[in-house]
C-alpha cells in the first residue's frame, strides 16, 4: 500500500486473459494480459492496479490473496461457459475458458465473503450473475432481433432507487439520467442470481448493470465504462470504496457488513459453513 502525507493508494487486483499471443521478440507464446484501458481509470482514480492471471484454484491461496487486496476488478473477455448455468452452448457462443472461469468465480466468491469492493465489467458482470446462480441470454439478436449491442453505443437508464427509497449505488455515482454508453456484447443477464438486483437497462429491457446490495460495493456493469475517458465517476467511486476498505483494516475488527451472505456462497474454509459446487 503506497501512501503520502494525504493520500492512500489502494491496491486493486484485476484478473486477466490467458491466451496465445504473437510478440515481436518471443514469437507466439501463452501470455497473461489485459487491455491498458482497464488500468488507466484505476490509476487516474488513485489506485494501484495489480494483475491476477488465471491459475489453479486453491481456496487457501484465494482467501489470502483477496485479503491482501483493497478492491477487485473482473474485466471483459470471452463468453462464460454455459455449462455453468445449465445450458448447452449456442452456435455463436465462444469456446469456453474453464481455467479463467474457475479462477474468477473463486475470486468473486471470496471478495463477496470478505466484503472487498468488487467491480465486474462486461463478461465479468455476466460471470458475477452466473456465480450467484443466475443465467444468461446466450445470443441477444435472438432475443431483441438485432445486433446493435456488438459493438456500438446505446442509451441506458440507471435505476434511481429501489425498495423503501434506497438509492442504487450506480445512480449515486453516475446519476439517473439516460446515458449513451459503449457496448460490445452479444450476451446479457437473463435470470438474476441470488441477492442481485438490476440497476440499469436499455430501452428494450436488456439488463446493463447489476448490484449486490448486501455488500459495501459489489457491482456488475455490462457496458464498457473504461472506454469513457471523459468520465471516470464509476471508477472514482470504486477506488474510494477500496480506500475505505484499506483504512477499515487499520481499525479493530467489526462484524462483516455481508454477514447475511447466503451460506451456499461461502467457501469451504469458512468455519461452520461449506460450499456446494454443484449448486452453481
Could you explain how this protein is built, in words?
The protein has helices at residues 36-44, 59-67, 98-114, 123-131, 141-144, 169-174, 233-248; strands at residues 2-3, 8-9, 11-15, 17-23, 27-33, 48-52, 71-74, 118-121, 136-137, 152-158, 179-183, 188-189, 197-202, 207-211, 218-221. The protein is an alpha/beta fold and 280 residues long. The chain has a single domain, classed as Rossmann fold (3-Layer(aba) Sandwich). A 9-stranded mixed sheet has the order 6-3-7-8-15-14-13-10-11. It has a two-stranded antiparallel sheet with strand order 1-2. It has a two-stranded antiparallel sheet with strand order 4-5. A hairpin with a 4-residue loop joins strand 1 and strand 2. The longest helix is centred in the middle third of the chain and has 17 residues, at 98-114. It is globular, with a radius of gyration of 18 Å. The two termini are 35 Å apart.
Amino acid at each position: 500500500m503506497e501512501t503520502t502525507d494525504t493520500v492512500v493508494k489502494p491496491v486493486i487486483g484485476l484478473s486477466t486473459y490467458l491466451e496465445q499471443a504473437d510478440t515481436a521478440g518471443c514469437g507466439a507464446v501463452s501470455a497473461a494480459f489485459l487491455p491498458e484501458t482497464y488500468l488507466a481509470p484505476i490509476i487516474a482514480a488513485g489506485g494501484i492496479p495489480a494483475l491476477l492471471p488465471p491459475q489453479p484454484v486453491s481456496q487457501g491461496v484465494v482467501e489470502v490473496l483477496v485479503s491482501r487486496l483493497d478492491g477487485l476488478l473482473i474485466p471483459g473477455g470471452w463468453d462464460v461457459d454455459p455449462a455453468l448455468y445449465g445450458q448447452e452452448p449456442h452456435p455463436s457462443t465462444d469456446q469456453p475458458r474453464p481455467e479463467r472461469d474457475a479462477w474468477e468465480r473463486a475470486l468473486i466468491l471470496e471478495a463477496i465473503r470478505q466484503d472487498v469492493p468488487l467491480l465486474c465489467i462486461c463478461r465479468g458482470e455476466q460471470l458475477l450473475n452466473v456465480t450467484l446462480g443466475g443465467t444468461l441470454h446466450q445470443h441477444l439478436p435472438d432475443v431483441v432481433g438485432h445486433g446493435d449491442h456488438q459493438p456500438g453505443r446505446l442509451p441506458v437508464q440507471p435505476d434511481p432507487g429501489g425498495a423503501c427509497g434506497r438509492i442504487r449505488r450506480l445512480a449515486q455515482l453516475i446519476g439517473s439520467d439516460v446515458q449513451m454508453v459503449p457496448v460490445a456484447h452479444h450476451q446479457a443477464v437473463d435470470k438474476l442470481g441470488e441477492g442481485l438486483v438490476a440497476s440499469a437497462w436499455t430501452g428494450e429491457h436488456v439488463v446493463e448493470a447489476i448490484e449486490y446490495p448486501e455488500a459495501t460495493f459489489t457491482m456488475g456493469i455490462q457496458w464498457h465504462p473504461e472506454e469513457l475517458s471523459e468520465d471516470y465517476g464509476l471508477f472514482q467511486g470504486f477506488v474510494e470504496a477500496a480506500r475505505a476498505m484499506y483504512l477499515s483494516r487499520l481499525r479493530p475488527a467489526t462484524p462483516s457488513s455481508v454477514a447475511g451472505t447466503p451460506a451456499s456462497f461461502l467457501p469451504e474454509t469458512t468455519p461452520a459453513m461449506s460450499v456446494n459446487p454443484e449448486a452453481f
